[in-house]
Amino acid sequence: MQILTMTFDEKWEQVLQCNGNYDGMFYTAVKTTKIYCRPSCRSRKPKKENVEFYDTREEAKDAGFRACKRCQPDAPFSPQLTLVSTVFDYFHKHYNERIKLQDIADHAGVSMYYLERFFKKETRKTLNEMLEIIRIDKAASLLKSTDKTNLEICYEAGFQSPSNFYKSFRKVKGFTPSDYRKRFQETTIQ
After folding, report:
1. Does 75 reside within a domain?
2. Which residue segment(s) compose the domain that 168 sits in?
3. Within this chain, do residues 13 and 63 fall inside the same structural domain, yes or no?
4. Domain containing 144 — which CATH number?
5. Which among 72, 76, 87 is positioned nearest to 123, based on CA atoms?
6. Which of 42, 94, 159 has the alpha carbon at shortest distance from 150?
7. How do residues 128-146 score in pLDDT, each as one tens digit?
8. Edge-to-edge strand order for the sheet containing 35-37?
9. What is the pTM of this model?
10. What DSSP state is assigned to residue 98?
């Protein structure tokens, strides 16, 4: 399995959302309880400063953590999860480029028709929908952590046009990029 290239804050955001799409791609370990979980675990969320992330279950175990009894991260995954993980990894490494379906299929080692059907079945999202979500998450992270303009973030996140960026951002996050940044700044001040 390939290592997912995400920042701490991006992983933390997926944990807060209990996003099952990232299960098996990284694990959340809580220093105070010495337990590790899947990103989709519905247990009460720990304080951010008490969290560490590991790419594999083995790394979490070697660091002295035990498996959560609620989400059971030690339960085996299907081999198909490796394919989904490969696609996610490709998206996270190339989100800011123009991506063609054939490029993803070639990277995953399957036909593009199989990849499209399989990915939709496993994630309940199309490849384009998932890529859009990843780009929006990257943009949201940049809005929170930088002073870059919305236009700079639009292109850095991989969008080809500002109008598509604004429309997609509002659809996924429920706010315009400017409103999202303002709301984040207001919550951090309080």
Report:
1. no
2. 130-189
3. yes
4. 1.10.10.60
5. 87
6. 159
7. 999 999 999 999 999 999 9
8. 51-54, 27-30, 35-37, 66-67
9. 0.65
10. -
Kindly state whether residue 72 falls inside one of the protein's structural domains: no
What secondary structure does DSSP assign to 4-69, as a single string? P---HHHHHHHHHTT-GGGBTTBEEEETTTTEEE-TT--SPPPPGGGEEEESSHHHHHHTT-EE-T
> Which tokens go with 58?
């083995």
Q: Angle formed by the axes of helices 8-16 and 127-145, to 10°?
A: 120
Contact 136, 157 (CB under 8 A): yes
Q: Give the burial class of 2: count Cβ atoms within 10 A of its Cβ; 0-12 exposed, 13-18 middle, 19 or more buried.
A: middle
Q: Annotated active-site positions, please?
A: 37
Best CA proximity match to 2, nearest among 105, 133, 142, 108? 108
Instruction: State the residue for tokens 């593009």.
Output: 112
Our count of domains for the chain comes to: 3
Tokens 């490029």 — which residue? 103
CA neighbours within 13 Å on the CB side: how many for 151? 0
pLDDT in tens, 85-139: 889 889 989 999 999 999 999 998 889 998 999 888 888 889 999 999 999 999 9
